[in-house]
Amino acid sequence: MGAPAMHERANIRRMAGYVPGERPAAPAVKLNTNENPLAPGDAVMRALSEITPAMLQRYPDPLATRLRSAIADYHECGVDRVIVTNGSDELLRLAVTTFGAPGHAIGLVEPGYSLYGVLAQIQDCPVARVALEDDWTIPTDIAARWNKAGAKLAFLANPQAPTGALLSARAIARLAAEFRGVLLVDEAYIDFVDPTQAHDIVSLIDQTANLLIVRTLSKGHSLAGLRLGYGLGRESLVTPMLTKVRDSYNVDVIAQHLGCAAFADMGHARTSWQLVREERDRVARELGDLGIVTLPSQANFLLADIPSAFGDAQTLHALLASQGVHVRWFDVPRLRGRLRISIGTRAENDQLLSAIEASLVVRT
Ligand code: PMP
């Protein structure tokens, strides 16, 4: 560290950078970064055992054709509409580099995934932040406000982070039609949506030239440690990122091979999605019984409003951490009184609920 700041670009000097959730020492109940409660299944672990020295000796397929074809088959779209990346975070960065013109705004929703704003700062783009309404819904005139700010690119997480709310396919189609820039819909948590509410916006790509869908294997496929994400969009959006902006070998041999295995056998992933849905409902109900209200969530986390009986949310966060139960507290105006709790295994969720209940007993 200690490098002279004078060489940094002014926007880099000004910015604070993204701070990921802590990585507690094991054993811990880790409910702070929205990973999958289950480890990857047998098919993926078998694929890992198939990695040979020769595979590691050579560079990976720069176009990741086998993996992109597997993803194209899963989504029933052309392979030219698929790009794979080193986690979906890399795709967010590529989108900013490719579509975010320095000096021109990037549209955001506030509160939201804080990396979006950090990426905008790196690119020296001002941000057009649109605050969620008091009831946490997205303002109906959001596209008009982004347009007014001249935004070339806008980020929208669906389900929304950190609320877990889901926008309908119709609402997204309307937004894409109204917004004049590239609309990046970040579906990091889409796999956990209840089947009764599920929708598929991939077919919208045919009618919508400015829609870029972002997905990840970190959440729904239990592969956060592997770093594999992908994007789906018209060739006019995907090709420049794929052929000009991305590093040639952005997805390594292991990620390409394991990614193919993950798409070849979805059974384990689907089991984890169902577990998350059931536990999400149970945890929300049991928190409710303790007097803690959560927002309706379609993701693998709950945003919990911490009442004063538990002290303030930041103190409860620290108390839980001291007992090995890690959840997320955000130092952001709208979120300071809340905790974001990832859904874990049944046993982990039980530990969380007991620790919260015990904190109430300690106080009363
Ligand atoms: N989008 C959202 C909304 C997220 O919460 C996250 C995880 N922090 C990501 C994208 C990035 O996921 P990954 O890079 O692991 O694919």
UniProtKB/TrEMBL annotation:
<dbReference type="Pfam" id="PF00155">
    <property type="entry name" value="Aminotran_1_2"/>
</dbReference>
<comment type="similarity">
    <text>Belongs to the class-II pyridoxal-phosphate-dependent aminotransferase family. Histidinol-phosphate aminotransferase subfamily.</text>
</comment>
<keyword id="KW-0028">Amino-acid biosynthesis</keyword>
<dbReference type="GO" id="GO:0000105">
    <property type="term" value="P:L-histidine biosynthetic process"/>
</dbReference>
<protein>
    <recommendedName>
        <fullName>Histidinol-phosphate aminotransferase</fullName>
        <ecNumber>2.6.1.9</ecNumber>
    </recommendedName>
</protein>
<feature type="domain" description="Aminotransferase class I/classII large">
    <location>
        <begin position="29"/>
        <end position="356"/>
    </location>
</feature>
<keyword id="KW-0032">Aminotransferase</keyword>
<feature type="modified residue" description="N6-(pyridoxal phosphate)lysine">
    <location>
        <position position="219"/>
    </location>
</feature>
<dbReference type="InterPro" id="IPR004839">
    <property type="entry name" value="Aminotransferase_I/II_large"/>
</dbReference>
<dbReference type="GO" id="GO:0030170">
    <property type="term" value="F:pyridoxal phosphate binding"/>
</dbReference>
<dbReference type="InterPro" id="IPR015421">
    <property type="entry name" value="PyrdxlP-dep_Trfase_major"/>
</dbReference>
<keyword id="KW-0808">Transferase</keyword>
<dbReference type="InterPro" id="IPR015422">
    <property type="entry name" value="PyrdxlP-dep_Trfase_small"/>
</dbReference>
<keyword id="KW-0663">Pyridoxal phosphate</keyword>
<dbReference type="InterPro" id="IPR015424">
    <property type="entry name" value="PyrdxlP-dep_Trfase"/>
</dbReference>
<dbReference type="GO" id="GO:0004400">
    <property type="term" value="F:histidinol-phosphate transaminase activity"/>
</dbReference>
<keyword id="KW-0368">Histidine biosynthesis</keyword>
<comment type="pathway">
    <text>Amino-acid biosynthesis; L-histidine biosynthesis; L-histidine from 5-phospho-alpha-D-ribose 1-diphosphate: step 7/9.</text>
</comment>
<dbReference type="InterPro" id="IPR005861">
    <property type="entry name" value="HisP_aminotrans"/>
</dbReference>
<comment type="subunit">
    <text>Homodimer.</text>
</comment>
